[in-house]
Amino acid sequence: MASLLQSASEHIFDLISATGIIAGLIFTGASYREDTRSRRLQNLVRLTEQHRDIWEEAQGNPKLHRVLDPSADLYTKPMTHEEITFVMLLLFHLHCWYRAIQDGEVKVLAGLELDVKGFLGRPVPRSVWEQRKVYFDPDFCEFVDRVITT
């Protein structure tokens, strides 16, 4: 018993140090997990705010109403600069969503593919996509092309 107490007293500093290190690692892990959740929520909020701002612009600008017209005739009335710019803003926004999903920063939205297909199935957005998709990453282009052709 005396030798056990002597041995414990000789290694008490090692025991305290090891306990401190383990507690520090547990605290760091918990803190990292909470920071990750918080960052993901902030990213989701930021992307949602951007989405709202883009669509508010479209609803308030009569020059952009044709973008959503499923029967827009691009032969008799070619796309305007405003329409092209608006669709490109939406494509860049979609690209941000895609990257955030791929990097695990936000979860996949249940209706994302339906939304992409519905929007890019219209004449103005589809034409802008076909003309400007060279500006995007190949994997993003594959994703969009797959969604709009299925």
Protein described:
This protein is mostly helical. It is built from 6 helices and no strands. Helix 3 packs across helix 5. The N and C termini lie far apart (about 75 Å). The mean pLDDT is about 85.
Low-pLDDT residue spans = none
Output the structural class.
mainly alpha
Distance between the termini: 77 Å
Strand content: under 5%
Query: How is the main sheet built?
Result: none
DSSP E strands, number: 0
Outline? rod-shaped
Task: Supply the number of helical segments.
Answer: 6
Mean pLDDT score: 84
Helix content class: over 70%
Order of helices and strands: HHHHHH
Q: In angstroms, what is the radius of gyration?
A: 27 Å
Keywords:
mainly alpha, single chain, rod-shaped, 6 helices
In terms of topology, how is this protein built?
Blueprint: H1 2-10, H2 12-60, H3 81-102, H4 112-120, H5 123-132, H6 138-149
Short summary:
With 150 residues, the chain is an all-alpha fold.
